[in-house]
Write a structure and sequence with these properties.
Elements (H helix, E strand, L loop, with lengths): L7 H14 L3 H13 L8 E2 L2 H8 L3 H13 L3 E4 L8 E4 L2 H7 L1
Helix pairs in contact: 1-2, 2-4, 3-4
């Protein structure tokens, strides 16, 4: 996979907000993983199980589950699952990019 350019907002604003304010550094790691897998929002959805994300980030599966809940609540990630046991497809949102475009 080619090197990804990270939007400065992710490091300057989102990282301190998720790690400091929400006290969820795991949410930041999961967001970065999903963002990278979606090629910086160029790919619509990313299919990944909790286990896949946990192995890639070094987090526990329960930490990944909590991180996904936080990201979903904050509307940074949308999760769609075809069935109870299906691997979810995540859509990574960048609300700051839409705000800049206005």
């Amino acid at each position: 996979m080619p090197a990804a350019r990270i939007d400065p907002y992710i490091v300057d604003v989102l990282m301190p907000d998720l790690t400091g304010h929400d006290r969820r550094p795991s949410a930041f790691l999961v967001y970065l993983f999903l963002w990278h897998r979606s090629q910086g929002d160029r790919t619509r959805g990313v299919r990944a199980s909790y286990r896949t994300i946990a192995e890639a980030t070094g987090l526990s599966k329960s930490a990944v589950q909590a991180a996904v809940r936080t990201l979903t609540r904050r509307r940074l990630v949308h999760s769609l699952r075809e069935g109870r046991t299906a691997v979810p497809e995540y859509t990574v949102h960048r609300p700051w990019a839409r705000a800049k475009a206005r």
